[in-house]
Amino acid sequence: MPETSSDRPGRSVLIGLESHIDRNLEDVAAELEQFIALLVRWQKIQNLVSRETMPFLWTRHVRDSLQLIGEVRVGERAVLDLGSGGGFPAIPVAIALKERGMCYHLVESNKRKASFLRTVARELELPIQVHGERMELLDEKDIGKVDLVTSRATASLVTIFALVSPFWTSRTRGLFHKGREVGEELVKARADWSFDVLELASETDHDGRILEISGLKARTQRELL
Known about the structure:
By secondary structure, this protein is α/β, with parallel strands linked by helices.
């Protein structure tokens, strides 16, 4: 039988997210499928995602990333994604919100993974710049100040905050995927940082949370005493 839209993984993964997407859903689905086809091809020579999760790419990685699009605010343009790896969450988000005029800075120090990300950005014509080096080696002028920071289970909050603080402004927000240790991470982070946090339940991970971070500031020496 001919394939219908509902049979397509790229279309099925968008169910329930339609109100957050301003562009043609069939175009979004086709580009998501193109992205995953590239990932599967490159996975043979470079582990872009955990091998154990390959059978669950559409739920474990794509849908998990796409749940952020409802949290991205109109007017947030410059996005910094830390430890981009196989492109999650930044690439699915960039595909879904392609017509919003956003620009994405993806930081990935692994050279092969960075090459993959550049290939995806070029073939899907995404507004993405890939920085193929460690975050701590980037100069502020290479990226500038950003509106939104994303990171998906790449490092602890303490580490993330230290790395992204040079690019953070009073208007910047963070959307971070976190697992069951999120409570402990928040306690440790508050020792050195002041911030507001909103915990959102993850729709793909029972133990997971999406943390919305705002008002990030390093605590002063006086506050630490």
